[in-house]
Amino acid sequence: MLRRMQCVMWLALLLGTCVPYGAAQKRDPLNEKEIDEMRESADWPDKRIELMVKFARARMAAIDQLRADGKSAKDRPMQIHDLLEDFSSLLDEIDDNVDMYASHKADMRKGLMLLLEASSEWQLKLRRLKEQSPPEELDQYSFVLANATDAVSDSGDDARDELKEQNELAKQKKLTKIYSERPD
After folding, report:
1. Of 58, 80, 160, 179, which is the most exposed, with the fewest CB atoms less than 10 Å away?
2. CB 145 within 8 Å of CB 105
3. Bigger pLDDT: 152 or 29?
4. Rg (CA), the chain
5. Is 68 left (phi over 0), alpha (psi -120 to 50) or beta?
6. Higher confidence at residue 14 or residue 147?
């Protein structure tokens, strides 16, 4: 019995030290300035989606810049890996926001149109990244690249479906422009 208690205590201690370490490893894809901009736009669904699309585009532009810069070849694959992870996290955040605003019938049609345009652009860039990356580099970020490609496809499909729904609600005058002024 004493031996079992010792094992349970060791296991609890081990789990207690591993969880904070794992939690500390996850980084926020947004910097402080971007976080502040997101807070300020919480009441404006279109503006918020526009900001997140802008931030995701910035990650894609950083990937393009890394690929064009021959000086950073040594650590370029890891930097691209991290940027793709940030990009995917931003897409998840966009999807979460679209779902939240949709559930409250907040008008986000302009933001959804922007997201659809960006999705087409991102699909092309991700395809090019896969096709033009040297095999030894691609091996280091192929998994997150595949995840990002799937996320773009899913996000575009969801945005297209939500835009149709939003257009129907707009015809019925059931959308609110300012999130905090929603009737529910």
Report:
1. 160
2. no
3. 152
4. 21
5. alpha
6. 147
pLDDT at 18: 47
Amino acid at 55: F
> Which whole-number Å values give the CA distances from 147 to 29, 86, 156, in the listed order?
16, 11, 14
Q: How far is CA 153 from the centre of its chain?
A: 13
Residue 118: pLDDT above 70? yes
Residue type, 120: S
Q: What is the mean pLDDT of the chain?
A: 86
Q: What does the DSSP 8-state code read for residue 26?
A: P
* Phi, psi angles (nearest 5°) of residue 107: -75, 120
Packing angle between helix 109-132 and helix 45-68, nearest 10 degrees? 20
Residues counted in the chain: 184
Burial class (CB in 10 A: 0-12, 13-18, 19+), 138: middle
Model confidence, pTM: 0.82
Q: Does 79 have pLDDT greater than 80?
A: yes
Please tell me which residue, 33 or 28, carries the higher pLDDT value.
33
